[in-house]
Specification:
The structure is a single chain. The protein is of the alpha+beta class and about 170 residues long. The chain has a single domain, classed as Lipocalin (Beta Barrel). The protein has an eight-stranded antiparallel barrel with strand order 1-4-5-6-7-8-9-10. Strand 8 and strand 9 form a beta hairpin. The longest helix has 25 residues. The chain is globular, with a radius of gyration of 23 Å. About 15% of the residues have low confidence.
Length: about 170
Amino acid sequence: MCVQIPRVRRFLAPVCVALALASPLRALEPTLSAFEIVSIKPAVTSLIVATVTMTMPDFTRKGEVYSSTYSAKVFPYFFYNEKGRIWIKVSDEDVLRASKGLPVDVRGHAISDVGDDRRVEGHAIPTGPRTGRIKVKVFVTRRISLNYDTTYELKGPVYAPADPTPKSAR
């Protein structure tokens, strides 16, 4: 038993040093809190005889789901206007992929205020650390979709890398 304690002490110091050196590296990684709020710009798509403008307030993330409301305005056929709720599931792994500048596919649903269910599919392509392009398909029927091409912006807490200079040197 006494022989094991010196062995543990011998390995304890290098482990503590390794953990101390790794902690600033962990501070450089963005946390998922930077992706809590996403703003999507209004988007317009054209049909043969009409245009549809879709607007959504900021999406907020709870768990792996971004949710918001939407308003679809159809011109000139205002009687087809629609409002409802929309949510998109994005896994933590996909959020971290997007933070590294890699494209991500998303899927979700929308339900109009009158109960019409809409399938939603999208493809997000980051263009900067807090911005990107997103292509979204909202399926009105099984085969007919409204295709939107717009931009997004992350509005969560700003990621700031840790200051590597010691406090005594500041």
